[in-house]
Amino acid sequence: MTRLIVNRRRFLSGSAALGSGLMLSGCDQFDFLGQRGHPLRQALEQANVLTYRAQRTLIGDAVLAREYASSEIRQGMKPNGSTEPTTPEYLALKAQNFAPYRLTIKGLVEREVSFSLDELRNMPARSQITRHDCVEGWSCIAKWTGTALGPVLDMAGVKPEARFCVYHCFDNIQRTLSGDILYYTSSDLIDAYHPQTLLSYGLNDVALPVSNGAPIRLRIERALGYKQPKYLHTIELVDDLTPFGRGKGGYWEDNGYDWYGGI
Ligand SMILES: Nc1nc2c(c(=O)[nH]1)N[C@H]1C(S)=C(S)[C@@H](COP(=O)(O)O)O[C@H]1N2
Ligand SMILES: [Mo]
């Protein structure tokens, strides 16, 4: 078992190197990744599916991500990706210190619900000190405070046919001639209901800063950095990821990153 996990880590560091090489060439070079039918790409995508199944089988549903001691927080949480969203909707909320903010749960649910920041902050809270690993090759240990996503989903009543949560964010991660692309990602329901999956509003004992995703950013602790959506406004329960973006379940996933992104 250990051997398999170690191999998976080696595989990940290999793909991290690939990821940063692509980053250097700039976002507009992503067309380079556009050959969807390329046999190599198909083979790798199949490998990702196998990795997902193998990892789910090996670690099961209930394994917790490692938690650290306060003394292991050695630096602030490095902001990455969008750090200052400029959509009018976000700027308006920020100007009012997020008082009118609501998180909406919709899609394949019994009832659409939404919660203000105050309501979320008054739900049962949990803090956890965990390590964030970005595919670009850096990590940060930080303390996240928030409320578990599972019970919030239960308030909406997830329908039996729902298979995934799509996490919709406020920030325009990329500007194109046809308009802004807004950040999104997704997870299965196992990760959504994992006890360490938090709607977090606190970072290292202060209110979550704008640069790290204020007012709410999701933590999925067993996944890579790009599966930690900042500036979250809507969670949509779905049975199919193909209608969103370019169909791969997230902004970075649409640009070639593994959908599961497990660590
Ligand atoms: N909405 C949104 N979420 C996002 C991103 C982003 O650009 N926009 N970047 C992702 C990536 S690649 C990383 S490594 C982390 C960075 O989180 P941080 O700024 O708190 O370090 O957020 C992830 N979630
Ligand atoms: Mo990242």
Structure commentary:
With 263 residues, the chain is an alpha+beta fold. It folds into two domains: 58 residues, no CATH class; 185 residues, Oxidoreductase, molybdopterin-binding domain (Sulfite Oxidase, Chain A, domain 2). Helices cover 28% and strands 26% of the residues. The protein contains seven helices and ten strands. The chain has a five-stranded mixed β-sheet with strand order 2-1-10-5-6. Strands 3, 4, 7, 8 and 9 form a five-stranded antiparallel β-sheet that branches. A hairpin with a 2-residue loop joins β7 and β8. The N terminus is likely disordered. Bound molecules: the ligand Nc1nc2c(c(=O)[nH]1)N[C@H]1C(S)=C(S)[C@@H](COP(=O)(O)O)O[C@H]1N2 and molybdenum atom. The site of the ligand Nc1nc2c(c(=O)[nH]1)N[C@H]1C(S)=C(S)[C@@H](COP(=O)(O)O)O[C@H]1N2 has 19 residues, from β5.
